[in-house]
Please model this.
Amino acid sequence: MSFNIHLNWSSEAAVSEPTAFCRDHTISFGSGQQVNASSAPEYSGNSQFINPEESLLAALSSCHMLTFLTIAHLKRLAVVSYSDHAQAELGKNAQGKLFVNKMTLNPKIVFAAGTEVSDEVIEKIHEKSHENCFIANSLNSETLVEIATDNTASTNNE
Model:
């Protein structure tokens, strides 16, 4: 199995100042979808477009969620909704180079009414999700999963 993207950037005009070039570019995915991207605003990027750090965090969060949903499905635990407010932080490594040194996932899961799931079971599913997430297994930075303790059942019958 392999995956591909096509990244495209072109110069708007020749400039002599290194920080004056435009960082905007497009990323086309194998699925045919395309997104506008740039560097983070702190690095002269366009704040209206996604940046590589956000893309990395989104990939981790999405992979963790999909792995969690797969495990929950195999355990016959009906999940009604899953949301995450993930965060990433930059730091310096031993060589003084900037890198994403910490990513924190903050998932909130709502199970179907009548589905009883203990906090211990939820924690174990998150641990297995992290252990089996392809993206997490590809990273060297510390990754934390902060689980919401109010994983309540939905009150409507969905």
The chain is about 25% helix and 25% strand.
